[in-house]
Design goal:
Shape: globular
Helix content: 40-55%
Radius of gyration: 19 Å
Structural class: alpha/beta
Strand content: 15-25%
Number of helices: 9
Largest sheet: 7 strands, mixed
Amino acid sequence: STRKESSAASDVYKRQARRLSVLANSLEFSIVVPLHNEAGNVTRLIEEIARALDGRAFEMLFVDDASTDDTRAVLVELKSRFPMLRVVAHRKNAGQSRAIRSGVLAARAPVIGTLDGDGQNDPADLPDLYRALTRADAPQDLKMVMGRRASRKDTAWKRFGSRFANNIRMRLLNDDCDDSGCGIKAFYRDTYVSLPYFDHMHRYMPALFRAEGHKVEYRDVNHRPRATGTSNYTNFGRLGDALSDLRGVMWLIRRRRNPGGADEL
């Protein structure tokens, strides 16, 4: 049984490799995953993304943010099994937002999907987010569909910290996002690269998209317990940065002027 499952998985990866070589210039979806010390999670996550997106023209960009464990070595080894996998490696640790940006800048598809590298986001939700963003009857200015963790598998203390931060952020930014920490999203690459970049910006993407006149929608998604490793964040560790970031984002939004689009005559 295990041998049959392995053979079936191998056939899936071979089909994906052939498809990728034919459609290299017409990719639909680029999946960007930021990583720091997640050696125990990357193999399962890559396998799950490959299964979830089988049949689509997609690529995966795993961005190693200068891990000190075996994350990078595991990724390089997996490239032979997964031809759609690309590995981007930071020379110095630069944080999650910079890792996401490095992946998006390297991506080749018009639509980007992101996942956290800890395996708590479920890749099975990616197709639904993609379909919601690109559906025929989507509002013209819909540029991002973001996950909302319907049932978080985190400690009570971590959930409390997130609720506290989300309530303050929503009140100050009026972004209608009640789960800014959810890492699974689908958005248009060209819209993202037009936004101002700053550290921790990944937590303020709904507010930044809306400030540019774009719509953001939310979909309930699955959330899973962390399988291995430890979180790179704590409630207190985020607090000081969050207060500084909020002031900065509020300033950016106040100072932006939206022309409502531009036409070449």
